[in-house]
From TrEMBL:
Keywords: Ligase. This is Long-chain fatty acid--CoA ligase. Pfam families: AMP-binding, AMP-binding_C. InterPro entries: AMP-bd_C, AMP-bd_C_sf, AMP-binding_CS, AMP-dep_synth/lig_dom, ANL_N_sf, ATP-dep_AMP-bd_enzyme. Signal peptide: none annotated. NCBIfam families: PRK05605.1 (NF004114). GO terms for molecular function: acid-thiol ligase activity. PROSITE patterns: AMP_BINDING. Residues 488-563 form the AMP-binding enzyme C-terminal domain. Residues 33-424 form the AMP-dependent synthetase/ligase domain. Gene3D superfamilies: 3.30.300.30, N-terminal domain of ligase-like (3.40.50.12780).
Length: 576
């Protein structure tokens, strides 16, 4: 029997945290409608000071659902969202789900080529996009099958006075307006405003079921090739409930979440779109993280819950200290998506008198797997304990049936009701990521036991259940909370005539953050020009994927079969 079969981490749970929660038999639509019923007059959303009540939010979702239905959107269809954080994003998300459609989230900072690749994969007929990107999607080849483009002007959700200021004939107003909106109707696109002007959808219209697919969330997965993780309503809802069960004393109907994480990212989606709304919280939305904007909002409605990544916490502390603004209202600060430096934890806790805890997850697990206790026994430098209903094993990466013991490094496997069902139209990749119980345990494993998700991460687990990340077997780079596939960046830069060979790795900078770094072998007689290489890469890659640092090398270390040894590359460039 595995040493983990008895779930030793349960003994480290904070008082009051259940070992198991009831797996919900509801859809995400049921949950948002319950919040509308329970908290109709409470503020659901705040955007630059403009507020939306839960009652108004419910009405907007129903009108948008009817608008999409009238355009021909049907259950099971994919509806692509390419939006920043804004009220329209959340309304579109739930409206599509109300019809039984499948939401596909996209990063609005992606290049046209990156977006095109994902649209080719999921085949959405309907795209709800930031108006600044409507022309990009309209230019996709006709054979892509995008039939409806709905353009969203995010400024329409701002206060009227602020919208008026953006229309002033001055340079500052013009610059602000151009950053937020196209400024005129997008050619060939319907307006989102016209979609939400419909009557409310009929109550008897068929509703999604808990096991229906709710979301395709694109991820680099364990191989580096972007693919859509298939997540059901139940997957997403149970992960939200697991997270809520972890918190000491959450106050339904009274929490104030700050949406500084992008909602197209798995972490931001679960903490903001699902968790905040299921708790009847006020969700304060920011289209991009700006410490000044956040602190301005905090003076009026102080946050109680700030899910973020380490650089956000660091910048928030610096800005708050400079402005003399207290962050002491924040009761829950959950960090994820990248390593949390213990020094930042100390600084945060000294400055706010509240705990900052690290969690861990991956898109394929909806995404949260483990979190440190929000209590005195949290252990900085670890990613905490598995959440309720989650089982873990540590195994030999090459032989998953060979299990490791406490404090022995191996690949982390995860099982639970929040684990995805596979990748969209990729059965072989799905089979590689999900292992049957009998492979990990033994032939006597229950026939209906759920599959084990291979995380690709090398970890150790202490005797009291705390997980520590040792390495990433999948060689992905995590920068600013986003996954970067080295292979994708290498393939782009190899097209530059100056580059003969290249290896892209993650290198740690002075702050401890991981940055995309390229070791390049240049053509004879060519001098390294980092600016030119970055400009070239930006034509194809999203900004966060573009290497921040280039290092010239004479040759790259390779294995006997010719594979670049990225670990040796990291060591090779460490002293340069």
């Amino acid at each position: 029997m595995s040493v983990f079969a008895t779930k030793p981490w349960l003994a480290s749970y904070s008082p009051g945290v259940p070992h198991l929660i009831d797996v919900p038999d509801d859809s995400l639509v049921d949950v948002i409608e319950e919040s509308v019923r329970r908290y109709p007059e409470h503020t659901a959303l705040e955007f630059f000071g403009a507020t939306t009540s839960y009652k108004a939010l419910g009405e907007a979702i129903d009108r948008a659902a009817e608008g999409l239905r009238s355009l021909g959107v049907k259950a099971g269809e994919r509806v692509a969202l390419v939006l920043p954080n804004c009220p329209q994003h959340l309304v579109a998300f739930y409206a599509a789900l109300r019809l039984g459609a499948i939401v596909v989230e996209h990063n609005p900072l992606y290049t046209p080529r990156e977006l095109l690749h994902q649209f080719e994969d999921h085949g959405a007929k309907t795209a709800i996009v930031w108006d600044k990107l409507a022309a990009t999607v309209a230019d996709f080849p006709a054979e892509m099958g995008v039939e409806r483009i709905i353009a969203v002007d995010v400024t329409r959700a701002m206060p009227l006075a602020m919208r008026a200021k953006l229309r002033l004939p001055v340079a500052a107003a013009r610059a602000g307006r151009e950053k937020l909106t196209l400024g005129h109707p997008a050619p060939g696109a319907l307006s989102w405003a016209s979609v939400v002007q419909h009557p409310r959808i009929a109550a008897e219209h068929p509703r999604p079921l808990p096991d229906d697919v709710a979301l395709l969330q694109y991820t680099s997965g364990t191989t580096g090739t972007p693919k859509g993780a298939v997540l059901s309503h139940r997957n997403l809802l149970v992960n939200s409930m697991q997270g809520q069960a972890w918190l000491p004393g959450p106050k339904p109907g009274a929490e104030v979440f700050y949406g500084v994480l992008p909602m197209f990212h798995a972490f931001g989606l679960t903490l903001c779109i699902t968790s905040a709304m299921s708790m009847g919280a006020r969700l304060v939305l920011f289209p991009a993280f700006d410490p000044e904007l956040v602190l301005t909002a905090a003076k009026k409605n102080p946050p109680t819950f700030l899910p973020a990544v380490p650089p956000v916490y660091d910048r928030m502390l610096t800005a708050a200290d400079a402005a003399g603004v207290s962050l002491g209202s924040i009761r829950f600060a959950i960090s994820g998506a990248m390593a949390l430096p213990p020094a930042l934890v100390e600084r945060w806790e000294a400055g706010t008198k509240s705990l900052l805890v690290e969690g861990y997850g991956m898109t394929e697990s909806s995404p949260i797997i483990s979190v440190n206790p929000v209590a005195a026994n949290r252990r900085a430098g670890t990613v905490g304990l598995p959440l309720p209903n989650i089982e873990i094993r540590v195994v030999d990466p090459e032989q998953p049936g060979v299990q490791r013991g406490f404090d022995e490094a191996g690949e982390l496997l995860v099982r639970g009701p929040q684990v995805f069902s596979g990748y969209w139209n990729r059965p072989s990749d799905s089979a590689e990521a999900l292992l049957a119980a009998r492979v990990v345990e033994d032939e006597s494993a229950a026939a209906d036991a759920g599959p084990w998700l291979r995380t690709g991460d090398i970890v150790t687990v202490s005797a009291d259940g705390f997980i520590s990340i040792v390495d990433r077997a999948k060689e992905l780079i995590v920068t600013g909370g986003f996954n970067v596939s080295p292979t994708e960046v290498e393939a782009t830069l190899l097209q530059h005539p100056d580059v003969l060979d290249i290896a892209v790795v993650g290198a740690t900078d002075a702050s401890g953050a991981e940055v995309v770094t390229a070791a390049v072998v240049l053509a004879p007689g060519v001098e390294l020009n980092p600016d030119a290489l970055r400009t070239f890469a930006k034509g194809t890659l999203a900004p966060y994927k573009v290497p921040r640092r280039f290092v010239q090398v004479d040759e790259l270390p390779r294995s006997l079969i010719g594979k670049v040894l990225r670990r040796q590359v990291q060591q090779q460039i460490a002293g340069k």
